[in-house]
Specification:
Length: 508
């Protein structure tokens, strides 16, 4: 009679895989509005490969599988907790600079020594750890299942809404395609209005604005964004309407999944495509504004990691490697976006060009000359340098467009205000707001807003208080025989820490 398998041999060691995958899907579930489901595939493959390498490498040191599984599972704690450990040490020591190679080597040696000491203790211990394996399998499996379910529910909320028809308040017969102007829609993330740049950042933006005026631009000097964040702002702008705030009883975070399909399948693009336009989009590295469905989607050959993948990198030791390779955040796409805009040319059809530049928003990974930083400057200084960089490149882009594509509309705007309570470039934490409600409104909504029409005729169309929801109403009326009424220029925002969405009418 053959003997039955022992309980030890019947219990699979699964928790090293579950615990390695859990942080990936937990982070994804918390950021589904900013990440596509496919972005987790590469990190998941890396985690499975690392788990396999550790399992095989540790075999001679820890032959017993349940003990070896515990070692692999414990490896994930300092790996995914790296940023918490290192940043806590930096804060404790009052050290703001990037840790040097020597300091990092010392930390790595200490971690290795502690790991080997634990393995030596585990080898001598008489425990089989079958019960511990069963417990860890169940707990880690449940945690991973909850994270996966959360991702699935968020992804379901992003299902495309019924396609919108092109705008009907337009001339039925489009003009001759050859006569249609290109339309460049350039969104600079968090670019503030000139008066706010001066009052808070102590930066005079007059030279840049005057340079635009000399090139025929109209500057909306008292503009405000309609919403305080990128997704509601652009979703509203690209659909020519205010959002239905009843969809967001729990605040902006609950609203975001519904906004993604509205951004990617928007009324502006549908209307212009129906009139013969080629939709051109430049890669951003940010899922909601990465318009991969454009007719011409332009991205670098070595497409960088995404916002979600960057967040994963930031919590692991990989960040120290990438920082020394001069590969900061996805914001490194900004030079590519600028270069592409400067060299972009029309083919057989007029172009609608969408470009979202993730500057001057944090983190400030460049200096004023466009050189990559390995550490972040003080908040206000970084913002001034980022704005100088953006201003210089935008001026070059405008000159190129006006030289090579003179029949072009150019819209350059900030999608919202700078959010000056967001002052820690390392942790991206929000600080408590200390100003008045009126100051908070300006902080979140005082945005750059500039327009260029080829005929330079703005009278009766544009005005100092115009907000983005009316941008394409003006353009469609002027260039396509539209009959859009101008909407009230209002802002919707929430007090910091509140889910309530408040309408603001008059503060400029």
């Amino acid at each position: 009679m053959s003997s039955s398998p022992s309980p030890s041999s019947r219990t699979l060691v699964l928790h090293p895989i579950f615990l390695g995958l859990f942080p990936l899907f937990s982070l994804l579930s918390a950021n589904m509005a900013w990440a596509g489901l496919g972005e987790v595939l590469l990190p998941a493959g890396v985690v499975l490969a690392v788990a396999a390498v550790l399992w095989i490498t540790l075999w001679p040191l820890v032959p017993q599988p349940h003990k070896r599984g515990l070692v692999v599972s414990l490896f994930w704690l300092p790996f995914f907790g790296y940023s918490t450990i290192v940043d806590s040490l930096r804060a404790l020591l009052g050290y703001r600079e990037m840790l040097g190679v020597g300091a990092l080597a010392a930390v790595a040696l200490l971690a290795a020594a502690l790991g080997l000491a634990f393995i030596a203790m585990l080898r001598r211990a008489p425990w089989e750890l079958v019960g511990a394996t069963k417990f860890l399998n169940r707990i880690s499996g449940l945690a991973l299942a909850v994270a996966l379910l959360s991702c699935a529910m968020s992804y379901a909320r992003q299902a495309p809404s019924p396609s919108m028809e092109p705008a009907t308040a337009m001339a039925a017969v489009p003009p001759d395609a050859d006569a249609l102007p290109n339309i460049y829609f350039i969104v600079c993330d968090s670019y503030p209005r000139a008066d706010y740049l001066k009052s808070y950042f102590d930066m005079d933006n007059t030279p840049f604005l005057n340079a635009l005026r000399e090139r025929g631009f109209y500057i909306a000097e008292r503009s405000r964004s309609n919403y305080p964040n990128t997704m509601p702002s652009l979703s509203s702008t690209l659909n020519l309407e205010y959002l239905d705030n009843a969809l967001a009883p729990g605040g902006w975070d609950e609203y975001y999944p519904e906004l993604i399909p509205r951004m990617k399948d928007n009324l502006v693009v549908r209307t212009l495509r129906a009139r013969g336009y080629e939709y051109v989009a430049i890669a951003t590295g940010l899922f909601p504004t990465d318009m991969t469905g454009a007719d011409r989607y332009i991205h670098p050959g070595d497409k960088p990691y995404t916002e979600y993948q960057q967040r994963l990198i930031e919590i692991t030791p990989v960040r120290s490697i990438f920082n020394r390779m001069k590969k900061p955040h996805h914001h490194r796409l900004a030079p590519f976006v600028f270069d592409t805009l400067e060299g972009l040319r029309r083919n057989e059809r007029p172009m609608f060009v969408f470009a979202h530049v993730l500057l001057p928003h944090l983190p400030h990974g460049y200096d004023a000359e466009g050189n990559i930083r390995l550490d972040y400057p003080p908040y206000k200084e970084g913002w001034r340098q980022m704005t100088d960089l953006v201003n210089r490149r935008l001026t070059e882009i405008v000159d190129s467009i006006q030289r090579h594509e003179p029949n072009s509309i150019i819209i350059i705007e900030g999608d919202h205000g700078p959010r000056t309570s967001w002052q820690d470039a390392n942790t991206m934490d929000l600080l408590p707001w200390k100003g008045t409600w009126e100051e908070y409104i300006r902080d979140r909504s005082a945005n750059l807003s500039t327009y260029y029409f080829p005929d330079r005729q703005y009278e009766g169309l544009l005005y100092p208080e115009i907000t983005p929801v009316n941008t394409f109403r003006v353009i469609f009326n002027k260039y396509f025989g539209g009959n859009y009424e101008m909407l009230e220029d209002v802002t919707y925002l929430s007090p910091q820490g509140s889910a309530e969405i408040i309408r603001v009418d008059t503060v400029h």
